[in-house]
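Dear support,

I submitted the protein below through the web form. The confirmation email said the job was done, but the results page showed an empty box. After a refresh the structure appeared. I'm attaching both so you can tell me whether what I see now is the final result or a partial one.
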Amino acid sequence: MRTVFLTAGGLGFMRPAPGTWGSLPSAGLVWLLLLLGASDTVALSALALTLAMACITCVMFGNYAEQRFGRKDASEVVIDEVAGQAIASAPVPILIAATGPENFWAISVLTGASFVLFRLLDIVKPPPARQLEGLPLGWGVLLDDLFAGLYAAIILWVGVVSIPWPGL
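What the results page shows now:
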């Protein structure tokens, strides 16, 4: 059961790019909730719950993950991507609520942008993300993704509020 949680239901076994597959649950969750008409409060609450559960899982089972996969931050362990993407997706419901009527285009573009930004920043790992990878247990695995998610959220927010976008 621990492996199921750490691999986000097996997404960590998907190839290529398991981290990309592991980022889909959080992005998909916010996209689907907003398309179904959920309020920004409901969408943010769902992301917060996802973030909390992913963080707890990553830290609780960090030692197990290293033993199970034989290395630190194994590519199969993608629960950290679920957590990071939850942070990267957090601005989406707020921006949608602030920009007027919800529409498929705006929801899809903002969710897609949060997804792409997170994946790029998770790969590049700007400081201090790369330095945090060395922390023990699941903390090193988790914190670099949380910082990548935070950076992605900030870039998305600044990009949307500072540039006039048609339809937003």
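Response: this is the final, complete result; the empty box was a page-load delay. The CA atoms of residues 54 and 83 lie 5 Å apart.
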